[in-house]
Amino acid sequence: MIAGRERKLELAVVAVVLGILCYLLLNALSVVQREMEEATVQAEVSALRVELLDRLSHREGFGGGVPAGDNPVVWAGREPAGYVGEADDVRTGGVWYFRPRDGLLVYRFRAGDEWHFRLVRSARGGGVAILGGVGLVRVDSGQDRK
Q: Structure pTM?
């Protein structure tokens, strides 16, 4: 009888310890997933910047006009993975969209927060490569309105 109770207690302690370890593992995995999503967004923005600079350098070398509007996707000539087009608001996470009302390229994370990017036309890039006065910069949430 006593051995049976001790065995049940041991099993309960093992179950609690395993539960705590699973909880900690799931939390660590969610942090890693967020970091991977951020790295993917940064890589996509870098690719858009390269495409933008490539098109602008071609224009500088061979002439031609620049695209109309403020959508950096149109300027770059390439859509990022998960791009849903122009929209005022998107509720789905893990997507890119261009918000025409304030001229922002937006990435909406799966968690619901957003990063905003703007096509700039100025001589200063703030640490971002600028060619012909044009570049793609990230704007803070306090600066995301014109």
A: 0.73
